[in-house]
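Notes from hallway chat w/ T.B., transcribed later so I don't forget. T.B. wanted the structure written out for a chain they're using in a teaching module, and asked if we could keep both sequence and structure tokens in one place. Agreed to drop them here.
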Amino acid sequence: MSESWTGKWGYDTGRDGIYRGDCLTPQQAAELAIEELGMEDGQFVEVGQYRDPTSPESYVDAEIILEHVACQDDYQGDFAEGWPGVRKPAIEELDAAITEVFAKWLDKHGARPWWFRVDEKTIRKFEMIDGQAVALV
């Protein structure tokens, strides 16, 4: 299973949109940017908080799978009308079963996301002033 990025902070160089760093606070991320980028007074850096991507298995939808099957040639026509003909609890049961199998498959094959997303709501801007990273409000 991959490491969780949730709650960690990093900085954007402003050149490539890629966040770097593995910091516990926004201030630490800004200070890391100063150190690694050799920032000078008057320069700015954005820092943001990482979050893990949503788990792939949370996107499983049994209704979509059933609909896909129902669109195949063997399921077209009056004879297949109303297939599979089950109630919502049965579809929820299928959802749960597929989700469980998919999660096990992801873990078995190391296919879980290894990347992070930057939560746009957490982005903060810092300016280099007198050799210090100062948070801008």
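Follow-up for T.B.: The radius of gyration is 24 Å. Might be a good example for the class.
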